[in-house]
Design brief:
There is one protein chain. The protein has about 290 residues and is an alpha/beta fold. Strand 5, helix 9 and strand 6 form a beta-alpha-beta unit. The longest helix is centred in the first third of the chain and has 25 residues.
Length: about 290
């Protein structure tokens, strides 16, 4: 809420920005979480859900100035996760916290929100952002839109259920895209999911591994990549710099990098969002028909 943003901003001390930033965002988050708990006790489910979603946002904001090893960050993240669990517990139909196997000592954690009651198996939108992006954000960005369209939602991140310190050793891996197929493997085991109507939404510019994961798994029905091809653009740029004579010039297309070797091609329709003032140069954009 804008009024709460202004209230927090007015209380942040520029001479003690780090501590006051965390303290004030945490205060407003705790207030919204308490409102939510009071509302659900009175049977006001929609009011409770609205407050839990705001609390999730504020708890996350409170951690922006803290190091991953700071105990205050871990406490705020745990409070945020508790609000997320309460939100999906009281969704209609109720959601669930799921664990998806990936690395031997680092399973993925996700929130699965079933589609509204209907006959048969439902389509699913799988949401995942860049390596440090938190899945809780999709509860207020995507969940309502999926529900209104009769779709289930699986929100996942690479952070797992442990501490951010544990994640630090994961983020540098070169095979992050291998996590994408594990999500598909999990969804195909559910009897409320249509395995032929699963779409993947990759959010933020650092989500290039999501696009690569779709390339290597032909089971997805569609994909949306918001900045998810940036690493391909970057690779093409570097290869052209290494070949100043242009003898092996590469171009970035909707099918991948071509003309410099074998192209990586998508097996499903892909929507790539490009802003009017985005990072992709105009001459490097092409429409695939």
């Amino acid at each position: 809420m804008v009024s709460e943003y202004f209230l927090v901003a007015s209380r942040i001390d520029p001479h003690d920005r780090a501590n006051s930033w965390h303290r004030e965002w945490l205060r407003i988050a705790d207030r919204n979480a308490a409102r939510a708990d009071a509302a659900i006790d009175c049977g006001h489910r929609l009011t409770a859900q609205s407050n839990w979603l705001r609390a999730i946002n504020y708890y996350q904001a409170s951690t922006f100035v803290l190091e991953s090893a700071d105990v205050r960050q871990q406490e705020a993240i745990e409070a945020m996760r508790n609000c997320a669990r309460r939100f999906i517990e009281h969704a209609t139909p109720a959601g669930e916290v799921v664990e998806i196997s990936w690395l031997q000592d680092h399973p993925l954690e996700g929130y699965f929100l079933p589609a509204p009651p209907a006959s048969g198996r439902a389509p699913v939108a799988v949401c995942m952002g860049d390596p440090g992006h938190r899945k809780e954000e999709y509860l207020f960005k995507i969940a309502r839109h999926a529900r209104e369209r009769g779709m289930a939602l699986l929100a996942v991140d690479l952070l797992g259920s442990g501490s951010d310190a544990e994640f630090d050793r994961i983020v540098g891996r070169r095979d992050l895209e291998s996590s994408i197929s594990h999500k598909m493997d999990y969804l195909t085991t559910r009897d409320d999911v249509d395995p032929h109507r699963i779409a993947l939404v990759g959010d933020r510019a650092g989500s290039s591994f999501v696009a690569r994961g779709v390339v290597f798994d032909n089971r997805f029905a569609a994909a949306v990549c918001d900045g998810g091809l940036w690493d391909m653009h970057e690779n093409a740029f570097l290869m052209n710099r290494l070949r100043p004579d242009g003898s092996a010039s590469q171009e970035l297309t909707s099918h991948g990098i071509e003309s410099g070797g074998p192209a990586l091609r998508f097996h499903c329709p892909v929507l790539i969002t490009v802003g009017g003032a985005g990072l992709a140069e105009k001459q490097r954009r092409r429409r695939s028909v």
